[in-house]
Every structure is written in C-alpha cells, then in structure tokens.
Amino acid sequence: MKHIKFYQAFIGLFTLIALSFTAFGFTNKFGLDGYEIYLNNKLILKQYVNQPVNLRVLQLNKANEGDQLRIKYTHCQTKGPGTGRSLTLQDEKGNTLKKWDFADASDFAMTVPVKELLQLEKKNSNHELSLHYVSKERPNGEMLAMLR
Q1: Nearest to 144, CA basis, from 122, 106, 118, 112
Q2: Which residues contact 80 (CB under 8 A, 6 or more apart)?
Q3: Average pLDDT of span 63-86
Q4: C-beta of residue 25 within 8 angstroms of C-beta of residue 19
Q5: Contact 20, 109 (CB under 8 A)
Q6: How far is it, in rounded angstroms, from Cα 44 to Cα 24?
Q7: pLDDT tens figures, 84-99
Q8: For burial by CB atoms within 10 Å, which of 24, 73, 75, 108 has the most?
Q9: Cα–Cα distance for residue pair 9/16, rounded to 1 Å
Q10: In sequence order, which residues have a C-beta less than 8 Å from that of residue 105 and are 6 or more positions away?
C-alpha cells in the first residue's frame, strides 16, 4: 500500500516538473534587458546584456552613407523603451566622441545615420570605438557593440 502511494506521488511530481519545463521553456528570457540593431530594416545584431562582449561587433564596411542604424532596446522591468534615452560613441578610454539624445516615446527605435558613424570611424581610425546606451532605467549604461 505504501509502495503504491509513493509511486503515485513520484508520478505526480514528475508530471509537475515536466509541465514546468514545458511552460517555461518557451518564454522570453526573464529579467534581462535586450536589444536589436537593424541596418535599415535588416536585423544585424540581437543580444541580451548577459552575452559575451566579443559577440557584440558591428561591421559597417558594407553600409552606405545613406543607410540608417536603428536600435531597439527593451528593459526587463518595463518590457518597453526607456526614458531619457541616449546613445554615445566612445573610444577605448571612455571618451565620448558623439552623443545622440532621443525623446521619450512608445517607439522603441533610436535611429542614427550611418554616415555619422562612418565619419567618426574614419576620423578615429587609430581608436577602438564602441556604441553605448544610457537611460534613466539604466543610468550606468550598457555597451551595445564594438565598431569594426
């Protein structure tokens, strides 16, 4: 009799665990900020902030000066765009070379002309450049990608 009850409890527990894996296995990553970078309308980089930095590289050598870089940054706590948003291009020492400010809006996209990035890359060819995101929700900022 005790053996049958143990077996039923074990089957119930196993079923609960299997259902939990099934239910949570297909959901978005909870608790992580994430972002997508588009060149015009083509997705070129999608990351969560916990992924290694060496995967975050933008290669704009095939981009045209008329192209637009669009960044959509999603905060984990709001599931939406931040407030007081800005993007900065920095050198390896953390010096800000250019800053773009964006209005608070329901639109996630922050658009930067590729022409400006290419000009800054050319002007600072002896430096390693990186693109950073800052908002009220993320005051310390987040390095989005290295430019190469």
Answers
A1: 112
A2: 74, 106, 108
A3: 86
A4: no
A5: no
A6: 27
A7: 999 999 999 999 999 9
A8: 73
A9: 11
A10: 81
Residue among 5, 22, 139 nearest 84 (CA):
139
Give the global pTM: 0.74
Is pLDDT of 135 > 60?
yes
The confidence score (pLDDT) of residue 105 equals 77
pLDDT of residue 54: 61
Q: Give which of 78, 88, 91 is closest to 134, Cα–Cα.
A: 88
Type of residue numbered 16: L
DSSP letter string over 53-64? GGG-EE--TT--
What type of residue sits at position 27?
A: T
Q: Give dist(CA 46, CA 81) in Å, integer.
A: 16
